[in-house]
Specification:
The structure is a homodimer. Chain A has about 210 residues and is an alpha/beta fold. Chain A has helices spanning about 20-30, 55-65, 85-90, 105-110, 125-135, 140-155, 170-185, 190-205; strands spanning about 5-10, 30-35, 35-40, 55, 70-75, 80-85, 95-100, 115-120, 165. The first copy, chain A, contains eight helices and nine strands. In chain A, the strands form two sheets. A five-stranded parallel β-sheet of chain A has the order 2-7-1-8-9, with helices on both faces. Chain A is globular, with a radius of gyration of 20 Å. The two termini of chain A are about 25 Å apart.
């Protein structure tokens, strides 16, 4: 018997630095990054199975009928979703899976799979978040303000998560997440049956030898 | 505003190696080790305030009346207890307090202070536990068997704890506990008010500057 892998859900407002932290985690540890499925057309340079699984609308709807998404959403007429069987096979096999996802998606995943580890990435400060959003693109002051206010509102969802990690520096944030994963693997809720099973196994050999 | 310290309760069957792991933790980090109070007479070399707080029966009963114990028990006619105000002052001050305690005591502390971090130390195997119990003293085979069986039964209490850490090696076990503490400090349950408070503080400065 081996332990299941962890589903690590990394979420938070845009501009908090989720992507960079995940790159750092993958550089240092053995994780499998979940790839989303979408019905939108591939853009230049995007690779099927790496950037996204590119599906036709029919393929997507067939998977929906089979209940094979942990969550899905329609954005501007395109479907996006997290394929369930891909993720669950890895987890059952003892592998840890990282899922980078927006807040709405994360909350749906939590309903479908509450055993996941839900981590909210916080920007070091609102000022820093603003800087990062500005750096991202040439947006108008108005659209910038909209994005910033939306990020501000999103931070309230932190209360739905298990952990909050402030992205002061990428290295420290990644280390904190690694510690969270060590801790989660020690959680009695996850280990109980395993401990008592192995105790049974050992006791019969040892007590009467 | 600062965060409270953690009450770290280290418990588990005798022979699992709690004491050695705690020494390793204290060597590496800033912890305050809780000292128990007792009415039993000091033994050779024991120092008041370090080994125990040695109290008269009257002093102990006075503290009991003041509800100043996180837990207490009577063993062979002597009282033992964990002084509450000593521990709580440190925690309120942001310091982390380690409490090494037997399983019955730990369960009482959990009732009094469920925010504590309850860690159960498991021996690497039942065989190893047996070896350690044998190494401890010149016991008869019979009393050894009694102690071993009692340790075996105690392992069932692991389900009441938050975390289980197997003491394969002292260094690895101590590192796991350090990770657990990093993770606990990131738990949203502990941070929620703090995050939302600082957000409020920052947002008013930043949004309209």
């Amino acid at each position: 018997m081996h332990n299941k892998g962890l589903l690590i859900v990394i979420s938070g407002p845009s501009g908090a630095g989720k992507g960079t932290i995940i790159k750092e985690l993958i550089k240092k540890g053995k994780f499998w990054l979940s790839v989303s499925a979408t019905t939108r057309a591939p853009r230049n340079g995007e690779i099927d199975g790496k950037s996204y699984y590119f599906l036709t609308r029919e393929q997507f709807e067939e998977r929906l009928r089979l209940n094979d998404f942990l969550e899905h959403a329609e954005v501007y007429g395109n479907f996006y979703g997290t394929p369930k069987s891909n993720v669950m096979e890895r987890i059952d096999n003892g592998e840890d899976v990282i899922l980078e996802i927006d807040i709405q998606g994360a909350l749906k995943v939590k309903e479908a799979y509450p055993e996941g580890v839900f981590i909210f990435i916080l920007p070091p400060s609102m000022e820093e978040l603003k800087k990062r959003i500005i750096k991202r693109g040439s947006e108008t002051t108005e659209s910038l303000m909209t994005r910033f206010k939306s990020a501000y509102k999103e931070i309230n969802y932190v209360s739905k998560y298990n952990y909050a990690v402030t992205n002061d520096t990428v290295e420290v944030a990644a280390e904190k997440i690694e510690s969270i994963l060590v801790a989660e693997r020690c959680r009695v809720d996850r280990l109980k049956d395993h401990i008592l099973d192995s105790k049974e196994g050992i006791i019969h050999e040892q007590l009467y030898d």
